[in-house]
C-alpha cells in the first residue's frame, strides 16, 4: 500500500482515507446499462486500491443486506461514510435512532440516494404506509442533514431532490476522483460537479448550433460587438441537486 503523502492546504482538516465505510445498494435493486451499483463500486475500489481504498469496509446489496445494527456500527466507527442506493437514506435507519448515535468520529457523509425504480417504489411504499407524517418528514434531505450534523458529522453531501441513476453514478465517480486522486476539499468537490455540468452544457450547445446561440451572435454583430459576443449558457437544474452542508474544508489524507 502506497502512503498518501498529501500536504494539507491552510485552514483545512484531514479525513483519514483508511477508515471509510460504505453501503452500496443494500437491497440490490438498481441495474443501469447492464451493470449494478455493486459492480461499479468494486471497480472504484480497485481503481484507487494502491493508496486510498485497500482498508475500506462496508456492505454491498448483492452480497449481504446490512441489518440496522450493522449500519449503526459502520456509522459510529468511520472517518467518512458513503451511501449509494435507492430511495431515501433515512428509510434504512429510523431518525430517532440516528439522532441518538454519537457520530463525532465521522467527518463526512456522502449520500447518493433518491433514485427510484418499480422494485424500490413497491418495497418503500409498503414501509411508508406504516409511518406517521412526522416520521416521513424527518426522512427528507434537509432533515437528514440536520440529524447527521446533530449527531456529530461535520460535513454532509447529498441530493436535494430525486435524481436519475446515471446522474448519481456520474456524481459518485466525480466525487471519488476529486476527493481521492485530485485532493480537492469537500466544498471544491461539490463545486466541481456544477462546473462539470456547465461545461457539458456548453459543449452540447456549441455542437448543436442552436437557433438561440445564433440569435445571440447575430445580435452581437448588429451592435458591433461580435468579438465580445458569447452565447448564454444556462446550466441544467440537476447541476445544483447535489449540495453540501457543514464544513467545506475537509481533505482526504
TrEMBL record:
<feature type="compositionally biased region" description="Basic and acidic residues">
    <location>
        <begin position="194"/>
        <end position="205"/>
    </location>
</feature>
<feature type="compositionally biased region" description="Basic and acidic residues">
    <location>
        <begin position="213"/>
        <end position="230"/>
    </location>
</feature>
<dbReference type="GO" id="GO:0035082">
    <property type="term" value="P:axoneme assembly"/>
</dbReference>
<dbReference type="GO" id="GO:0060294">
    <property type="term" value="P:cilium movement involved in cell motility"/>
</dbReference>
<feature type="region of interest" description="Disordered">
    <location>
        <begin position="194"/>
        <end position="233"/>
    </location>
</feature>
<protein>
    <submittedName>
        <fullName>Uncharacterized protein</fullName>
    </submittedName>
</protein>
<dbReference type="InterPro" id="IPR039586">
    <property type="entry name" value="CFAP46"/>
</dbReference>
Amino acid at each position: 500500500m502506497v502512503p498518501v503523502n498529501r500536504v494539507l492546504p491552510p485552514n483545512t482538516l484531514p479525513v483519514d482515507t483508511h477508515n471509510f465505510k460504505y453501503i452500496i445498494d443494500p437491497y440490490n435493486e438498481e441495474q443501469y446499462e447492464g451493470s449494478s451499483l455493486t459492480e461499479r463500486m468494486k471497480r472504484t475500489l480497485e481503481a484507487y486500491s494502491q493508496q486510498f481504498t485497500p482498508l475500506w469496509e462496508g456492505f454491498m446489496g448483492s452480497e449481504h443486506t446490512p441489518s440496522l445494527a450493522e449500519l449503526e456500527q459502520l456509522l459510529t466507527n468511520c472517518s467518512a461514510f458513503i451511501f449509494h442506493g435507492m430511495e431515501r437514506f433515512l428509510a434504512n435507519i429510523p431518525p430517532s435512532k440516528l439522532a441518538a448515535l454519537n457520530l463525532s468520529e465521522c467527518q463526512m457523509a456522502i449520500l447518493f440516494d433518491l433514485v427510484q425504480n418499480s422494485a424500490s417504489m413497491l418495497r418503500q411504499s409498503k414501509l411508508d404506509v406504516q409511518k406517521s407524517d412526522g416520521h416521513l418528514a424527518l426522512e427528507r434531505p434537509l432533515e437528514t442533514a440536520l440529524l447527521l450534523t446533530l449527531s456529530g458529522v461535520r460535513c454532509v453531501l447529498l441530493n436535494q431532490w430525486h435524481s436519475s441513476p446515471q446522474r448519481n453514478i456520474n456524481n459518485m465517480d466525480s466525487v471519488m476522483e476529486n476527493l481521492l486522486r485530485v485532493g480537492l476539499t469537500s466544498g471544491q468537490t461539490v463545486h466541481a460537479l456544477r462546473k462539470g455540468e456547465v461545461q457539458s452544457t456548453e459543449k452540447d450547445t456549441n455542437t448543436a448550433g442552436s437557433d438561440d446561440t445564433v440569435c445571440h451572435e447575430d445580435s452581437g454583430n448588429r451592435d458591433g460587438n461580435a468579438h465580445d459576443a458569447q452565447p448564454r449558457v444556462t446550466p441544467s437544474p440537476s447541476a445544483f441537486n447535489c449540495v453540501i452542508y457543514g464544513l467545506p474544508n475537509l481533505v482526504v489524507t
